[in-house]
Fold this sequence. Notes:
- The complex is a heterodimer of chains A (58) and B (244).
- Chain A has 58 residues and is an all-alpha fold.
- Chain A has helices spanning 7-44, 50-55.
- Chain A has a domain at 20-58.
- Helix content of chain A is 76%, strand content 0%.
- Chain B has one domain (29-243).
- Helix content of chain B is 77%, strand content 0%.
- In chain B, helix 2 (55-81) packs across helix 7 (197-243).
Amino acid sequence: MSLGPHAAFILAAYAAAIAVVAGLIAWVVLDFRAQKRVLGDLEAHGVTRRSAVAKEPA
Amino acid sequence: MPLIDLANPTRFLGFAERALPWLIAATLFAFAIGLTQALFVAPDDYQQGATVKIMFLHVPSAWLGMFCWSLMSAAALGTLVWRHPLADVAAKAAAPIGAAFTFLCLFTGSMWGRPMWGTYWVWDARLTSVLVMFIMYLGLIALWRSVEDPSRAGRAAAVLTLVGAINLPIIKFSVDWWNTLHQPASVFRVGGSSIDRSILMPLFAMAIAFTLLFVTLHIAAMRNEILRRRVRGMLMLQAHAQGG
């Protein structure tokens, strides 16, 4: 695969695409882990959601 | 499962858990085909040479930047008319992804423009209207972050999203309405595509791969946003219990 005289521009475009997609994947994965961790901490401290409380038998 | 069931956040979380592994596999498969086609099968353009390979990133990014705003506009109607919380979740989760693809469209366009046009940037109608969309994406993200109550932020963002939707036909038809350095439509146009099949097929393969990536990221980001709102609700309950 020869990229010709404008190889630097082509490589810069593909490098940017890789960086942007990697950034989006990292954002989604790290955010998911953070939310799950906080949810786990809250549940461990006995905090439950309002809807979960409402479903419990009286 | 009927589609309407997904409008329930808990059912949506279950759907996301089941769908995401399949979507990730489909996205990887589509990129394997798309990148092979784009980098190793598609020939160089007779005028632009190998720089045509930038098109396989630039065009799908541009399509997704606009598609994402269209999706957010539909979600904005869901927020304002039906006040459905999942509509607001969908719009908020989509905005950073749309902003990222619009940035990629602008950057790759600039990398393509320098060797072909002799400049990284011109203030022509197409480039300027896409830049306006990118700035509006950033404005929307800032608005969601600056208002603490998600439902209030969602309604304000929905109005701004619908106002910003006016820009979509301007972007699409800018190359017809004004004299621009950017080329006119060459894929979807009256009389058929002006791009040769040997380059058009890799372009469609990359467009499918990018679209699958968008869907995967959007569903994952919606799942995160639902969890964030649950955390917020639980923290408020905890604060209320400690205060009372």
